[in-house]
Write a structure and sequence with these properties.
By secondary structure, this protein is an alpha/beta fold. It is 40% helix and 13% strand. It has a single domain, classed as NAD(P)-binding Rossmann-like Domain (Rossmann fold, 3-Layer(aba) Sandwich). Strands 3-2-1-4-5-6-7 form a 7-stranded parallel beta sheet, with helices on both faces. It is globular and about 50 Å long. Bound molecules: NADP nicotinamide-adenine-dinucleotide phosphate (NAP). NADP nicotinamide-adenine-dinucleotide phosphate binds next to helix 1.
Length: 247
């Protein structure tokens, strides 16, 4: 792949994805990493200073009135070759979400970040994804052509739900999964694939200290997986190591 854009790269899995992409011999020529606040992105800025291919853009995915301006900034970086991969990573998970405690604002805020923003960002950047898919028309489907990776969660799987609770988070990721399956249908003819990806339960601010995986384990496996994706993966739901998860 020539170019990839990842949201929410100042910490957690986003930062880990940037690090592991840079470790590859066939790393992207252009890696656009977004963060909401530059002052909280020290490590990302260091990576960008030592790697010319890392471009940082300040971006809150829920500021929909700024998406057009964001697209202009992305266009300046990718040029006429378009964008190969949009990785919707930024996400949020509120606490205290058992049924007696859940609040409408919590549900709506979580949907705004985890569901609405990835869909609207895909819409915003679609012309660039189409451009890359068209430029690489002779290549098979995959990141070398064009792909949307939506960071989902096993907690969004309806079939796997054994524990209940977490209404805002679960529902927002289930809806994101539906969006992924729908993108598969809508974008197939354009040569753009879409997958939903579960990173595993990982020790980040969101995952907490009891999670079994560290950021390196999850993100190195996810990077290997996205490079290996082909047409047969289109529209599917996978965990970090490529194992399929039921919707
Ligand atoms: N960790 C896990 O076990 C786990 C499991 C399943 C799925 N996931 C998913 O993996 C993704 C990354 O999670 P993580 O564990 O790395 O979480 P994290 O450590 O809490 O990091 C979340 C990232 O998302 C960014 N973000 C949140 N709201 C945003 C917004 N409105 N605009 C732009 N960026 C925003 C944060 O930026 P700020 O620093 O500015 O807040 C931060 O960079 C999420 O989609 C999450 O749902 C994680």
């Amino acid at each position: 792949m020539r170019s990839i854009l990842i949201t929410g790269c100042n910490r957690g899995l986003g930062l880990g994805l940037v690090k592991h992409l840079l470790k590859r011999a066939d790393r992207p020529e252009l890696l656009i990493a977004t963060c909401r606040d530059m002052t909280k992105a020290q490590e990302l800025q260091e990576l960008s200073n030592s790697n010319k291919n890392v471009h940082i853009l300040q971006f809150d995915v829920t500021e929909f009135d700024k998406h057009k301006q964001f697209a202009t900034e992305v266009q300046k970086i990718v040029g006429d070759d378009g964008l190969n991969v949009l990785f919707n990573n930024a996400g949020t998970s509120p606490k205290y979400t058992r049924l007696p405690f859940v609040k409408p604002e919590q549900l709506m805020d979580t949907f705004r970040t985890n569901t609405v923003a990835p869909i609207i960002l895909a819409k915003t950047l679609l012309p660039f994804l189409k451009q890359a898919a068209q430029k690489n028309i002779s290549l098979p489907m995959g990141v070398q052509r064009a792909a949307i990776v939506n960071m989902s969660s096993i907690l969004g799987s309806i079939q796997n739900n054994q524990d209940g609770g977490l209404y805002p988070y679960r529902c927002s990721k289930t809806a994101l999964n539906q969006a992924t399956a729908t993108m598969r249908m809508d974008l197939k003819e354009d040569g753009i694939m879409a997958v939903a990806l579960h990173p595993g339960w990982v020790r980040t601010d969101m995952g907490g200290s009891k999670a079994p995986l560290d950021v390196d384990q999850s993100t190195s496996a996810m990077v290997d997986f996205i490079y290996s994706m082909g047409e047969s993966h289109n529209g599917g739901f996978y965990q970090y190591d490529g194992e399929k998860i039921p919707y």
